[in-house]
Structure formats: structure tokens, C-alpha cells
Amino acid sequence: MVSQVTPAVVNVSVITRAPMEDNPLFRDPFFRRFFNLPDRPQRQEQATGSGVIVDAARGFILTNNHVIKDAEQIIVTLKDRRQFPAKLIGTDPGTDIAVLQISAPGLSALRIGDSDGLQVGDYVLAIGNPFGIGQTVTSGIISALGRSGLSVEGYEDFIQTDASINPGNSGGALVNLRGELIGINTAIIGPAGGNVGIGFAVPSAMARAVMAQIVRYGEVRRGRLGIEMADVTPEVQRKLRLPSLDGALIAKVDPGSPAERAGLREGDVVTALNGRTVRGFTDLRARLGLTAVGDEVEMSIVREGGERRIRTRIAAPQASGNGEAQAVARLPGLRVVEIEPGSPLAQRLRGGGLVVAAVDPGSRALQAGFRPGDIIYAVNRQRVQSLAEFQAVLSAAERGYAVSLLRGDFSVTIIIR
After folding, report:
1. pLDDT tens-digit readout, 26-46
2. Are 310 and 262 in contact (CB under 8 A)?
3. Domains in the chain, ordered, with CATH?
4. What are the DSSP E strand ranges found in 27-114?
5. pLDDT tens per residue across span 175-225
6. Over the range 42-62, which residues count as b (16 or more CB within 10 Å of their CB) and which as e?
7. pLDDT for 180-192, tens place per residue?
8. Using one digit for the tens of pLDDT, what is the confidence trace for 337-346?
9. Per the CB 3.0–4.6 Å rule, which of 13, 178, 224, 367 could disulfide with 75?
């Protein structure tokens, strides 16, 4: 089985650029102009990770977003040592998944298995390129399912395993004993980043859903239901006479939202989504976040001691924008819309801002980490409330800039050099 699986696991080499250390005087624009010095020099840096071929005919490879972030060049090395340049099809920082594509003959691909059917104690193999030393296979079991709260941005529903996962394994394969891909290795917990038997993988069901949207749109287009959620506490369990702490408590329903139109109310507890038990708030959030706009979902809820089912459709996110999307000159591939004054979004921000309307596939903006729906409100800690202000601050930045934005319930900072 191992000999059939390993040809589909590849090494991913990434070349980035970083500023070189120098005398602080050389960072001063006046000093550079006076002595006719070039801009601050940069050096090339190379990092390695892993990837998994999942479509041999089209050359699609699953890997981690953090493996290829800020890449200027991506090289894929197969097990037979053939090397090919890779094209970045798209990324999703929320799940830490990226999709690459290579054009090569004679590729092997892994079949994507059913991660929803996994159980704690199942035997698994982790395959990747730890520390860049070459392909390695380790074995272990599934230690836990549905892990979250690991300080990894976005939608968390990790498989935990004790199979050895080390730096460089990121983006590699977690497979079952049938040789099927059931996870993309992504994170470890340990001193100095070393393995202590606690590794995490993105479930294959999540990776497959993300890949489908990236291949189709170049991005993940998340919809909106219009609810705020929380975990079920022991007090809520007692009060509502719930059999367990599973489920997600609806803390707020947005007026006019799909959730309100479907009949959801504050205080409802969602116990299942499309027939599958909801373990908690992060579980429901992750699964809703991977549901395509326009798809219908069925929720099983508990209300006032009784159980009922509610159907609703995922709607497109509210743009709350004013006018047509406009390009950002300093960030090729990024198009934004100014937030309409007085809108609920403007009130939430206590001022204006910009909504990212579109990010072109393969663009610098995509590689930097921008996503449609992001809400930009500051650059280098300076508030921006219009496209003109945004452009002006970007143009004045000498050594790169930090863009502050809201992405769903998260505050995110994107660093651009």
C-alpha cells in the first residue's frame, strides 16, 4: 500500500524575498537620494513543504496556504526527482489550504477518502518531507477529532494524530490503511516546533470542498446565514435539558437575514446540520463556511424543550458598498468598494472603510492573502475610510505596509513588503 501512495506525495519548494539587514541610515529616503543609493536590497529565501497530487489528469496538488504564502516561485519535486514549476490556482487562509497545478506526464494521484467516517483509534500514516531531508513515512493513530482553538486563523476542525509530523510535513498526506487521503497535515504542538506526538491535519472533506471552489472560482466564496453563535455551556444544557454539551447556541439573529426568514431565533440550539451532529460552535461555523452560496441546509434545533427541523439557503454576503468595484494601483489584482456611510457596516466600524469585492487569481493581492469580503479599515495603524485615503497611505509607505482588516469574526493583519 505504501509504495502505491508515496508517488502522489511531493516536495514543494518556495522562493520568497526578504529585506536584507543593513545600517538604519540606508532606510532613510533622504539619505538614499543624497548618496544616489538603490532601494533597500533584498535577499532570496527558500522554504520547503509538502503537497499531495489529487488529480493526475489535471495536475492539481493540495498543500497548505502557509507553505506557499508570499511565494515568488514554486517548484514541485516528484518522488522520482522530476521537477516542475507550479502555478498557484488559489488559496484559502481560513482553512490553510492552497491548490497548485503542474503540467507533467505520468503523475500518480491519491484517492480522497471519507474523513467524516473516521473514529478515534483508527490507524493512519503521515507522509511528507520533514526538515527537507526527503520523503518520510510515519505511523500512528487518530488521537482526537474536531480539534479547534489552536490559534490558527479561520475555520478549525482538525484531526489530531500521534503520527510524527515535523516542520516540512506541512501540506503532506494523512492516509488511512486503504491508502486514501483523509487529511492534509498542517500543524504541530511542541517545543521549538518539534514533534511530541501532537499533530493536526485538515480533514479531507474540508480540503475537498475548499478545492472545488478554488478550482471553479480561484477562491472560496463563503455565504451568509446571519447568526452569531456560542458553545453550549453546562448552565444552558441544564436549562434546556439537553442530553449533552454538543450543539451550538444561537446568540443573535440578524434582522432580514436568511436565518430570520427561515424562523431561527435567539436561544435556539443547533444540534445537527444536514443530519450530522454538531459538536460545537466552531464545528458548525466551519461547516457553514464551506457551504456554497445558494445551497440549502437543514438544521435540527432544540427550542423550549422540543425538537424541530428548519431549512434555509445560504445567501451571498452583504457588500454594504457604495458604487462599483475599483482597482487599487499599488496592489495589482485587488478591487474594492467603499463602504456606504450610515450603513450597518459603517456603524460597526465607527466610520468608513473598504470591502474587497474581488481578487484576481494568481495576482499579487491573492498571494498577499486578500480575500473577497475582507473589510479594510487601516494601513500601518492609520484609519482609511475611502479609496483615495487607501491609495495615499500605500503610496507614502517606504518599507512596506501592514493592512488591518476584518474577516468574518476575526481581525487579520496582512504584511506586504
Report:
1. 555 555 555 555 555 556 677
2. yes
3. 2-101 (2.40.10.10), 115-217 (2.40.10.10), 227-313 (2.30.42.10), 321-416 (2.30.42.10)
4. 42-55, 60-64, 73-77, 83-85, 87-92, 97-101
5. 999 999 999 998 776 655 556 678 899 999 999 999 998 998 888 877 778
6. eeeeebbbbbbbbbbeebbbb
7. 999 999 877 665 5
8. 888 776 667 7
9. 13
DSSP 8-state class, residue 330: T
Q: Which residues are CB-contacts of 274 (< 8 A; sequence separation ≥ 6)?
A: 297, 298
The helix/strand/coil state of 140 is strand
Cell of 55: 488529480
Q: Which residues touch 125 (CB under 8 Å, ≥6 apart)?
A: 2, 5, 137, 138, 139, 163, 173, 174, 175, 177
Reported as a single tens digit per residue, the pLDDT across 290-312 is: 887 788 899 999 988 889 999 99
CA distance 278 to 266: 17
Kindly report the backbone phi and psi dihedral angles of residue 99, in degrees, each rounded to the nearest multiple of 5, phi listed first: -120, 125
Distance CA 256, CA 52 (A): 43
Which residues are known to be catalytic?
Answer: 66, 96, 170
Distance CA 365, CA 358 (A): 10
CA distance from start to end of the chain:
45
H/E segment holding residue 146: strand 136-147
Q: Whole-structure pTM over 0.85, yes or no?
A: no
Report the candidate in 171, 193, 43 with the shortest Cα–Cα distance to residue 110. Answer: 171
CA-CA distance, 106 to 84, in Å (whole number)?
13
3-state SS, residue 285: helix
CA-CA distances (angstroms) from residue 293 to 150, 223, 296?
A: 28, 5, 9
CB atoms under 10 Å from CB of 8, counted, come to 24
Distance (Å, whole) CA 390 – CA 310: 43
- Residues 303 and 342: their CA atoms lie apart, in Å, by 35
